[in-house]
Amino acid sequence: MEIPLDRRKYHHQPAVDNAALLWxxxxxxxxxxxxxTEKLVKCxxxxxxxxxxxxxxxxxxxxxxxxxGYVHEHRDLAGRPVMVAIAxxxxxxxxxxxxxxxxxxxxxxxxxxxxxxAEPPKKPxxxxxxPPEQALGIFDLRGFSPLQADLEVAGFLIEALYNYYPGRxxxxxLVGAPELFKAFWDNIKPLLGKYSKLADFVTVDELRENYFxxxxxxxxxxxDSSGVPxxxxxxxxxxxxxxxxxxxxxxxxxxxxxxxxxxxASLVGVGSSQISIVDAGAVDQLSAEEAVRQLQKQIPRSLxxxxxxACENRALLWxxxxxxxxxxxxxxxxxxxxxxxxxxxxxxxxxxxxxMKEMRSRKAYLHTxxxxxxxxVLVVVANRHNVLERRFKESCCMCxxxxxxxxxKLRTLEPSGAPEEQMEIEQAIAVIDLxGFSPLQADLEFVCFMVDVIHNYYxxxxxxxxxxxxxxxxESFWRSVCPMLHHYQDLAEFTTASEVCRRYFAPQQxxxxxxxSFRH
Length: 520
Description:
Helices cover 39% and strands 11% of the residues. By secondary structure, the protein is α/β, with parallel strands linked by helices. The chain has two domains: 55-221, CATH 3.40.525.10; 240-277 and 348-518, CATH 3.40.525.10.
């Protein structure tokens, strides 16, 4: 077997001189020389580019400290080295993709050192001698949540196992997988091809009894282990307060499941006095003017809002004051943060040409008709978003651009607004169609950006966010998202397509996605 290009190295030695390596790739490709050559060259190029030979724990210390993966000190009953990954210790919010990829590769290399690689047999019936040629992989999936549904890391691992370490893992045990993981697995399985047959769903007891001598199993699975804590939502902001918020979110979900979703909120209001903006008509005129003057002094003229100094835009100042319940200090802090973000993100220069692929997917759009309260409607269709295909920057640009288009359709009152002006529409609604939601749409990175935008840069601009036809698996994702929303989670209403059509729109004016297939 001849390696083209140059004498590429494998473990610091010329690959063409490694008969066992050549024989391994030939066996993987059923002795097809051309296919084996192509696959081995691809592997060697990747190893050189990824600098595999130089990887070490110092390059992914945060990943190691998290204890999310390691090579077990004991072999299994078949004598195979064992790689262990603990899903609940991984978080899509906290990981660095490059570091996670490096640690995966380093673990595979560590296991590889404990494996043999047979050379071409000199006799037809000769069996390979020495240690096993394949390792055992174990994924501890107890406590799996959307925070661990990391398709980017999963994609890297699949590519590595298929192209760069083909056949080196003889079996993969998926331990204690909850129902949520089954949906995630349905999206990953097609990517694995024939390798999906290596996976085996097992319980902790089956792992102990069938794969290890007593006392030699990984510590997470020993009988004297304290076990897995109850599923906790681990986010980048983690605290006891978040736990209560997550519980509130779960309670809201349960209420929906029992058909008791709160429906008494006014269509015109935001649905909760806890999150309503200060009523412009309930504030003394002199107090309002004085608050605006004080806020003006704290906003530099160099900071612009839609092309002119923000400090001259009384309606904008008054909006942020009302959002912060007339606290000038808090309003100034929030508005300054917003204006600096707009400047850094170049919001004024955004246009569809910057995210044409996102636009063509029609995953979001401004609806032609307003709702029955006269509010503009932003529609988001979840199943048109795919975390594996989207470009994060483009998704964020489109999100900000649509918020600007929503703002174009809204009126923002000034502190001296006349009574008749106070009937103007200041808030929109969002309709999020969750029909067909799967792990491919569980894009926490993008949701984090979107929540930041709605909370900090366009505060209170949505009076209601309608979550339409959410499937069961959305529950876990919602529990992960809730802590980031704070009291904004009260804007969300779980509902059905038929309810939205009936309660929020005139006949035949609801978004078409909600009226198709008799969903109304």
